Amino acid sequence: MKRCPQCSANYADLLSFCSLDGAPLQHDESATKSEATTRRMEPEMSAQDIIMEIADHLRKTVDRGEQALIRFEPLTGLKLTMAQISEHFEAAALKAECEVIDKTDTRATVRRASGIYIA
Ligand SMILES: [Zn+2]
User: Fold this and answer.
1) What is the rounded distance in angstroms from the CA atom of residue 65 to the CA atom of residue 72?
2) Do residue 57 and residue 104 come from a single domain?
3) From the CA of 5, how far away is ligand 1's center (Å)?
4) Same domain, yes or no: 59 and 97
């Protein structure tokens, strides 16, 4: 990326002069770098976050002592992918005191412990 030293407008690398004031454009490494940094800093959910989100959902959805079919699709509204949900489901279920009775790539049947769960 190139930047005009006069008006700070950004231009593509192949351009040489600012179209607004005619000033010769300079390469702007900092803009390119900060863009890359911003991309890298985008909050990506850690495994721990994913597990917490799913566990939360399970606690809200499944009553104690109840068995329920959990579809993964509504969970994708929490910015989780089906693969992430499927991968971390067992750990999340454990956290939410749920026993996984049956599980596919898109849904699971869980039973939530009725009493106090001792890990
Ligand atoms: Zn300019």
Assistant:
1) 21
2) yes
3) 7
4) yes
Are 52 and 95 members of one domain? yes
pLDDT at residue number 79: 75
From the CA of 37, how far away is ligand 1's center (Å)?
25
The reply to whether 63 and 104 lie within a common domain is: yes
Q: Residue 42: what pLDDT?
A: 47
Q: Are residues 98 and 66 in the same domain?
A: yes
38 Cα: distance to centroid of ligand 1 (angstroms): 25
Q: Which pLDDT score is estimated for 93?
A: 97
Which residue positions in the chain have pLDDT lower than 70? 30-43, 77-78, 116-119
C-beta of residue 85 within 8 angstroms of C-beta of residue 103: no
Say how many Å lie between the CA of residue 3 and the centre of ligand 1.
8
pLDDT score for 41: 46
Which residues, other chains included, contact 99 with Cβ-Cβ below 8 Å and sequence gap of 6+? 93, 110, 111, 112, 113
Q: Compute the distance from residue 98 Cα to the ligand 1 centre, in Å.
A: 62
Alpha carbon of 36 to ligand 1 centroid (Å): 24
